[in-house]
Design a protein that fits this description.
By secondary structure, the chain is α+β, with helices and mostly antiparallel strands. Helices cover about 15% and strands about 50% of the residues. The strands form 2 sheets. It has a 6-stranded mixed barrel. The protein has a 3-stranded antiparallel sheet with strand order 1-11-10, with helices on one face.
Length: about 150
């Protein structure tokens, strides 16, 4: 019974990605943005995928002003920017023309560090999960994405 899900999804061309459960009970996933590897929290409750301001140059992002105000993880009304036309790769799954929200991730990383977890470059949110028709196997710690 355990392999039935993976076998079914493999037949449907899904890509399997290992997730790591952190000490803060978040799933951590490695992703590549514009050819640069980074560490991200998988957050189904985040409407948009985000990168911290401090990593704009690292991920070769072209930031533009935004009217969007971000909120989450105890912070509200945060100033944001956006960066369009990015490529993301998670495991063997790849998507182009992705827009990312840029904002100050200090409060997120401070909370992670306080709980002895690694700081992250950003958050993979519902926008990317929807594009990949994501399925999360919480029992086995796997993310499945469809090309």
């Amino acid at each position: 019974m355990e392999n039935v899900l993976w076998e079914f999804l493999l037949k449907k061309e899904y890509k399997k990605v290992k997730l790591k459960l952190t000490k803060t009970n978040h799933f951590e996933v490695k992703a590549t943005i514009n050819g640069v590897k980074g560490l991200f929290i998988l957050d189904t409750g985040a409407s948009s995928s985000c990168i911290g301001f401090e990593d704009v140059e690292l991920f070769k992002l072209k930031a533009k002003a935004s009217n969007i105000k971000a909120a989450g993880a105890g912070a509200t009304d945060m100033i944001t920017q956006t960066a369009s036309n990015n490529t993301i790769k998670i495991g063997r799954w790849k998507k182009q023309k992705i827009t990312l929200v840029l904002f100050n991730l200090t409060h997120v990383n401070t909370a992670l560090i306080m709980h002895n977890a690694k700081p992250v470059n950003g958050i993979i949110g519902a926008d990317i999960l929807k594009k990949g028709k994501a399925i999360i196997d919480y029992n086995k710690n796997y993310l499945y994405l469809k090309p």
